[in-house]
Amino acid sequence: LEHVGFINNRQFFSAALCAQQFGGERSQQALNPEISVLAEVFGIYDDSTKETEAQLHEVEVAVQSALDPYTLLKVCLGIHHEEADEGLKHEGESYHLHLEEGYVTWLAPLPGLKLEAGKFKQPFGVYNRWHAHALPILEYPLYIRTFFGDEGLASTGLSADFLFRGLGTSEFTLQGVSHGGENAVLAHYQSFWD
Questions:
Q1: Measured distance CA(148)–CA(71) in Å, rounded
Q2: Which of 59, 63, 61 is nearest to 39 (CA)?
Q3: 108: left (phi > 0), else alpha (psi -120 to 50), else beta?
């Protein structure tokens, strides 16, 4: 922790200094992607018949990796249970595979700026940013399912986040996205102060 710089009361590690300190052999392991597999299983108990049933609702495979010190890649694939007759069948049930999120993030191309491109979830309310397995409830709230579907609002496009100081710390997000064949420009402003 010797190579710590203080910029605006925040600590940042210099990627170049860490690479010099740890060497190429140890930094190659940092190129391995982080892979996680999550399953969402619902259990049902019928008190009248005393029967239990378990249903695999979703399996999610998430891969994220640092492509370089300033570029990150994140991909989330979901296998969902469907009532339709399409997809993979198992005892009358069907499943389908789809891309939930897949985007590249560029950190600090300019001071205070972060760029994202691909398919990502919009910051609409609290729950829309989360995947279904991370929700503290069984499914997305009614307002999200009514307007955006069972998976919430995830669109393909570009996003720019500007972090700046004014009255406290402020963040302005501007997104150009396409969802369901329609194009939109979304803006989001938030500010934090003591």
A1: 29
A2: 59
A3: left
Q: What is the pTM of this model?
A: 0.71
Residue count (the chain): 194
Q: What is the DSSP string of 20-65?
A: HHHHHHHHGGGGSPEEEEEEEEEEEEETTTTEEEEEEEEEEEEEEE
Residue with tokens 């259990």: 43
pLDDT tens-digit map of 9-66: 333 333 443 444 444 554 566 668 899 998 888 888 888 888 888 888 889 999 999 9
8 Å CB contact between 171 and 187: no
Q: How far is CA 80 from the centre of its chain?
A: 17
Q: Which residue's structure tokens are 């990502």?
A: 120
Task: Report the alpha-carbon distance of residue 134 to residue 153 in Å, rounded.
Answer: 16
Closest CA to 37 of 59, 21, 10: 59
